[in-house]
Amino acid sequence: MKKILIGIVIIGVVLIIGAIVAVSLFLDNALKKGVETLGPQVTRVGVKLDGVNLSLLSGSGSIKGLVVANPEGYKTPNAISVGRASVSLSPSSLLSDKVIIKSIRVEAPEITYELGSGGNNLSQILANVEAAIGGRGTGDKPASSEAGTGKKLQVNEFIITGAKVRVGATVLGGTAPIPLPDIRLDNLGTGPDGITPADLMQQVLKALTDSTMQAVSGALKNLGQDAIGAATKEVGKKAAGAVSDAAKGITDLFKKKKD
User: Which of 255, 133, 137 is nearest to 201 (CA)?
Assistant: First the structure.
């Protein structure tokens, strides 16, 4: 009798573990599909995700290979590429109306900031997201009704660390990597209503876009100063004045595109 009871307990444990594994696999696939479905609807650009790995027991997980494409008309293939991001959440909240995410940490993302005839790629994507959640974006397109549906979220902390941006512009002669300072957002959706995934996307993208534009603006200013200094040493004050005018033209062009 004792052996039978032990056998029943073992079988029960195996079934529970199997159920957890099965649910985890289903949830991982569902999250991946959700990102690749909602992402393009909100950003109006392609969004791809290699995979999601989430443990229901610990509430910890990871996201691998997230790529956000550029809007139509831009030459570089991607706007944002994330090799890995870690997530920590409250497992019990998955069954409630609001999912509690303790932390999201995005590590070493690669951002491409490209100037185009209508502005820049990041601002274009941000405008698309704002239009989708009820603002007015590019072309004053109406808001998407799907952007505000689904579970609500609470994100206690969202951290982007080790990011680098490459600037794409003909006036710069190619692309140049620029490090970004760490970005940290706290207590998002802590109210009873929480925030939607689209709201979260908008806040994160806005912080990333603002940080990128500040870093790029500073880099262009330094570029102009370096050019002036080099010209002063090599060809004298007259040529330095010409280079100064050229550098100012680059900065003014950037400001015009940014606006």
Answer: 133
What's residue 105's pLDDT?
95
What does the pLDDT look like over 22-69, one tens digit per residue? 444 456 777 888 889 989 999 999 999 998 888 877 889 899 999 999
The tens digit of pLDDT for each residue in 130-187 reads 998 875 444 444 444 445 556 799 999 999 999 999 887 544 545 568 899 999 999 9
| Residue 35 token pair | 């990102």
Question: What are the domain boundaries of the chain?
Answer: 2-208
Print the SS3 string covering the chain: CHHHHHHHHHHHHHHHHHHHHHHHHHHHHHHHHHHHHHHHHHHCCCEEEEEEEECCCCCEEEEEEEEEECCCCCCCCEEEEEEEEEEEECHHHHHCCEEEEEEEEEECCEEEEEEECCEEHHHHHHHHHHHHCCCCCHHHCCCCCCCCCCCEEEEEEEEEECCEEEEEEHHHCECCEEECCCEEEEEECCCCCCECHHHHHHHHHHHHHHHHHHHHHHHHHHHHHHHHHHHHHHHHHHHHHHHHHHHHHHHHHHHHHHC
Rounded distance, CA 38 to CA 40, Å? Answer: 6
Cα angle: 198, vertex 40, 165; to 5 degrees: 85
Instruction: Give per-residue pLDDT as tens, 114-141.
Output: 887 778 999 999 999 999 887 544 444 4
Q: What angle do CA 108, 110, 112 make, to 5 degrees?
A: 155
What are the backbone angles phi and psi of residue 250, rounded to the nearest 5°? -60, -45
Q: Do 238 and 190 touch, CB atoms closer than 8 A?
A: no
Judge contact between 86 and 66, C-beta under 8 A: no
Q: How confident is the model at residue 161, as a pLDDT?
A: 95
